[in-house]
Amino acid sequence: MIFTKPKPMKEILDSLAPYEKPLILGCGTCSADCHTGGEKEVADMKKRLKSEGMGVVEGVVVESLCNLEKVRRALKDKKEQVKEADVVLVMSCGIAVQVVAAHTDKPVMPGLDTVFAGVLERIGHYREMCSICGQCVVGEYGGICPVSRCPKELLNGPCGGTIDGKCEVDSEIECAWVEIYERMKSLGNEGSLARIAKPKDHLRSTHPRRVNTGKGILKGEW
Ligand code: SF4
Ligand code: SF4
């Protein structure tokens, strides 16, 4: 899941200052689960912008703003509102902002900051689990990612600075390498950590990346 956090209101208001009639788009998947861009947050934003004297056209939550077909369908269904708006405020991740920008001739502004891919532990508590590196190696580390859970991204750890099982970079988190060792030990495979892991193939994480599985039909061009 992609985690987002609200931008400071001043930043949003500054970005909307040249405009009068925003259309607000939220996302019913990740941003809804994060409580940053679901029905309630879009309604709250609508109220807030109205209180700032803006003529908000509408607040709409699309089922999934990173799904091209769903975005196209939603913008088609709301074509009158899109026409009336002079800016679109997207309360979702940076992916969604770009998808919406590619499908409207209106200026598009982000209402959220995209922070990471991770897990929702409980409401308001999120944890980064994956840096989307393009070459997953967690199988070699007992299912614990050293790339995103160790601040030094060590494939050959630990760094030696671990204090009572905590990370020397951030004492509020567990040392990922202590967790990796304990997990591998419980699997009876801690000996495999003695090998020297080769550097990752960073060519697999050059941007922009594209994947075509050959399945499904993409209607039209991006
Ligand atoms: S190894 Fe790469 S793809 Fe796998 S969980 Fe870690 S960051 Fe994500
Ligand atoms: S203490 Fe552990 S998690 Fe922190 S940087 Fe060192 S090896 Fe990585």
Summarize the structure.
With 222 residues, this protein is α/β, with parallel strands linked by helices. The protein folds into two domains: 2-115, Rossmann fold (3-Layer(aba) Sandwich), CATH 3.40.50; 133-205, no CATH class.
- At CATH level 3, the topology of the largest domain is Rossmann fold
| Strand order of the biggest β-sheet | 3-2-4-5
CATH homologous superfamily of the largest domain, by name? Response regulator
Q: How helix-rich are the residues, as a percent range?
A: 25-40%
Number of domains: 2
CATH class of the largest domain, named Alpha Beta
Tally of strands: 7
| Terminal CA distance | 23 Å
Radius of gyration: 21 Å
Order of helices and strands: EHEHHEHHEHEEEHH
What is the typical, i.e. mean, pLDDT?
92
Return residue spans where pLDDT drops below 50 for at least 5 consecutive residues. Answer: none
Small-molecule binders: iron/sulfur cluster
Shape: elongated
Major sheet attributes: 4 strands, parallel
Number of helices: 8
Helix-and-strand structural type: alpha/beta
Strand fraction:
15-25%
